[in-house]
Amino acid sequence: MGKVYLIGAGPGAADLITVRGARLLGMADVVLHDALVEPDMLAYAPPGARKIAVGKRCGRRSTAQQFINKQIVDAARAHALVVRLKGGDPMLFGRADEEMRALEEAGIEYEVVPGITAALAAASAVKRSLTLRGVSRSVALATRSRAPDSEAIREQVNADSLVFYMGRDSAPEIAQELIDAGRPAATPVAIVEACSTPRERTLTLTLEALAMGEAQQWLDAAQPSLLMIGEAFAERKTLLPVSRQDEMADEQRARVAA
What we know:
Layout: E1 3-8, H1 19-25, E2 30-33, H2 39-42, E3 50-53, H3 65-78, E4 81-86, H4 96-105, E5 109-113, H5 118-125, E6 139-143, H6 150-156, E7 161-165, H7 171-180, E8 188-193, E9 201-206, H8 207-211, E10 225-229, H9 242-257
Parallel strand pairs: 1-4, 1-5, 2-3, 2-4, 6-7
Antiparallel strand pairs: 7-10, 8-9, 8-10
Helix pairs in contact: 3-4
């Protein structure tokens, strides 16, 4: 029996994989990689390593998860070091639990190597913090199934900053559901496409504009994208922590009183 490493490839750019992930990838006999893994990332693998694409893309023909599990187990039974290379971080929207269960049932040793998830890289791309003193004290990382879940939307609206993975096709519906749940229509939205790759693009608009479908023509169906929603993504000059607002109000009242 070999050993399997579930490695987070990071958000896209080959040099955003961790040092540990790159080192293990460089020792792999077999690499089973996601569709979102950039070709440059696979260059870390040894020339003789077998590379197997097992990508799953929403709305496209993709490999069934049970078959992916079987491929990982079969590879570990035939090779010493197997890498399951997953976009972003393995433990976030990556079906890692299903693969770990399959390995455990087969009695195969494995290890998880974390990676930079796309939400963190996207925040860097738009130069906005996911948390901001006095503005955003909570962050929700979410995805939306094809069937609307009003209860889930009501729970998510309570987070100050929202990041929706795999939200491109349902962006107008997500925005309208958030507005219906009480989110202000003027809430800032930042969209980051193909984060950290040479194809990266960003778009800023409001929740209302997103609900009206104004981003749909801009979005590229061939590229992954994230929706980032909340006051933390407003233009920086408009942001002022609540504590400082209070201080300014006190100063103004003092001047009036004088």
